[in-house]
Amino acid sequence: MPLSLTELEAIRDECLADDVDIDFMRMCGWSSEEAEAFFSSGGADAPQEDCELPLMVHLADGRQLSYRVYGSEEADATPVIYCHGNGNSRLFSPTYKTTEEMARQAGAKVVCFDRPGLGYSSPHTDGSYSSSADDIGQLAAALNLGRFALLGYSSGCIHALAAAALLPAGKVSALMLVASDGPYCQILDDVSSHDMFPAEDRKHFRTLVNRSWDQVLSAAKESADGLHESYHSAKSLLTEEKREVNLVDLRQAMRQGLEGMARDSLFEGRPWPFALKPLAQVPTLVWHGENDDEVRPSAGRFVAQKLGVQLKVFDGEIHSIIRRKWGLMLQELVAAAKGGSA
To answer: Which of 15, 172, 175, 213 is found 20 to 30 A from 325 (Cα to Cα)?
Structure first.
């Protein structure tokens, strides 16, 4: 679980290592045992990175984005920029060992990047959905992707949607949103749409809007703790190999601290900087699990309605729908990008 600054200071005190500086952005993702070994050694025994160094793109404002690429290497492969959920990183592997093979079979060249403050990507204290769209445009240009499709999952959906809405016409070939958050401020302000939402959902949405920085930072800590606990739970039925894949992904999401995760939550509760309306010339698919209790299906239904498309609801599915529908998602997104059904 992520360590707080107070916890790191306590471990340093116990190790009598007052002369060793605390780099919180680097250390918060360490375990208590790793921090104790580091301070006991006088700062010499730092844990090794548990993944390869990522590919990097340099942005116009001097920031960097870390990313990885996998999937089809064929000349006619469809570029897909994947926007991961909160608490994930570029290393998120929906179906573990078969993630990359499913991308190849679907004819997709998947580019997954760390949003600002996650993984090795530079923080962006003035970031927004608008700047995220610009980051995606610069990433695509640097990789010479030409036209590309966008796939967003959970919190990543709005980043993908912002890029589809704000980048120049013709850049985005198709858009897929899976388990999408909604424009909660707009939903609560739009009295005419209240009949779409159960009272319980509206109550939940109110807890997400206009939160303070301390509130979203606390929520990020709670979310990271919850993910860590779930990956270690016997109820998860994860093999040791799958558990480690998830933990490496989570550690990358927290590599610089919890600020990147918190900023995602902050964005979700603020007005969106673009109109939620049908996207001309961009085939759009919106999917949601029927039993998703993390992001309410009513939010996905509202987004689909405003985009002028039919929400595809999967019976019995929950928020982790992406783990069971990854191959199908890519197949349908590639088909839409190439002019097939959407």
So the answer is: 172
Q: What is the pLDDT of residues 249-263, one digit of tens each?
A: 998 999 888 999 999
Rounded CA gap, 41 and 32, in Å?
A: 14
CA trace torsion 287, 290, 296, 299 (10° rounding): 40
Spatial CA neighbour of 286 closest among 315, 268, 264, 313: 313
Q: How far is CA 142 from CA 57, 165, 172, in A?
A: 7, 20, 15
Q: Tokens for 166?
A: 């704000």
| Averaged pLDDT of the chain | 92
**pLDDT digits over 277-312, tens only?**
999 999 999 999 999 999 999 999 999 999 999 999
Q: 327 near 106, Cβ under 8 Å?
A: yes
| Residue 290 identity (one-letter amino acid) | E
Q: Which amino acid is at 65?
A: L
Q: Is 6 helix (H, G, I), strand (E, B) or coil?
A: helix
Distance CA 231, CA 87 (A): 13
Q: Locate 143 and state its tokens.
A: 């990789």
Strand partners, 111: 69, 81
Residues in the chain: 342
3-class SS of residue 13: helix
Task: Please provide residue 297's backbone torsions phi and psi, each rounded to the nearest 5 degrees.
Answer: -55, -30
For the cut 60, the answer to whether the pLDDT of residue 342 exceeds it is no
Task: Please give the model's pTM, rounded to 2 decimal places.
Answer: 0.87
Encoding tokens for residue 144?
């010479």
Beta strands 148-153; 108-113: pairing state: unpaired
Q: Could you count the other beta carbons within 10 Å of the beta carbon of residue 69?
A: 15
Which residues sit opposite 55 in a β-bridge? 67
Question: Which phi-psi region, left, alpha or beta, contains residue 316 (left: φ > 0; alpha: ψ -120 to 50)?
Answer: left
| Helix, strand, coil percentages, rounded to 5, for the chain | 45, 15, 40
Any idea what DSSP says for residue 59?
-
